[in-house]
Design brief:
5-stranded parallel sheet; Rossmann fold; 227 residues; 8 strands; 3-stranded antiparallel sheet; binds adenosine monophosphate; disordered C terminus; globular; alpha/beta; binds adenosine-5'-diphosphate; single chain; 9 helices
């Protein structure tokens, strides 16, 4: 299964990508997470990405595309992947096609998770993430059993800097201008699967899996993955 997840910041891409990755037995690849990890280790990549992330802007394409090319070239991506947060503009969408062509494969589907602005702003403002393992919670919609503490690894939960109101506004603007055209790109290719992201987490997961089955993406991926 080779999927990309599309949708505005906070709609639930990371949440669903984790679940879909586990369901299909493929890695969840998040460019945002790769940048955050690089930043926490203070690598040159992380430090270079920081100023764009803090401002709610996209990290330059050459950096991001290089990162994804390297990641998709690793052995664990050969059986499939769920890409979350990439592609974020048309240059990246075309680059992804090139990368996949170079390794002799293609996407099975692009899943667009849809929700209104009010919903995504509420989700972003209550999002909490584990500093240690990266697991994502929500103070209201997916609360950890013990406030501030990750039930998976015991790490401390924190609020992302870019989930502050001012940055959120800019991220939504960038999404509308740069990322929304990517949805149309996949629609024209007949690869788009749109799901209602307003529903609760389990319902969204179920509707993605059933939409992929209806579109035959699940069946198609089985012989592919066994090769
Ligand atoms: P994205 O990766 O698209 O930015 P996340 O997966 O990090 O979004 O989700 C944003 C926040 O919303 C998180 O706090 C998450 O727990 C919560 N969330 C995700 N999906 C849902 C949902 N269907 N209903 C309610 N809250 C959700
Ligand atoms: P995310 O975790 O997907 O919300 O991404 C957090 C931030 O990382 C974004 O606001 C961007 O600054 C940067 N980022 C993540 N993915 C990309 C991408 N594909 N292209 C450019 N910047 C990205």
């Amino acid at each position: 299964m080779r999927l990309v997840l599309l949708g505005p910041p906070g709609v639930g891409k990371g949440t669903q990508a984790t679940r879909l990755g586990a369901h299909f037995g493929v890695p969840h690849i998040s460019t945002g997470e790769m940048f955050r990890e690089a930043l926490s280790q203070k690598t040159p990549l992380g430090l270079a990405a920081k100023k764009y992330m803090d401002a709610g802007k996209l990290v330059p394409d050459d950096v991001t595309i290089g990162l994804v090319r390297e990641r998709l070239g690793r052995p664990d991506s050969s059986r499939g992947f769920v890409l979350d947060g990439f592609p974020r503009n048309l240059v990246q969408a075309r680059a992804l096609e090139d990368v996949l062509r170079d390794v002799g494969t293609r996407l099975d589907a692009a899943v667009s998770i849809e929700a209104g602005e009010e919903t995504v702003v509420r989700r972003l403002s209550g999002r909490r993430q584990c500093r240690q393992c990266g697991a994502v919670y929500h103070v209201e919609f997916n609360p950890p059993p013990e406030p501030g503490k990750c039930p998976v690894c015991g790490g401390a939960l924190y609020q992302r800097d870019d989930d502050r109101e001012e940055t959120v506004r800019e991220r939504l603007r960038v999404y509308a201008v740069e990322t929304e055209p990517v949805i149309e790109f996949y629609r024209r290719k007949g690869m788009l699967v749109a799901v209602d992201g307003e529903r609760d987490i389990d319902e969204v997961t179920a509707s993605i899996i059933s939409a992929l089955k209806e579109g035959n993406a699940v069946e198609e991926s089985v012989p592919d993955g066994d090769m």
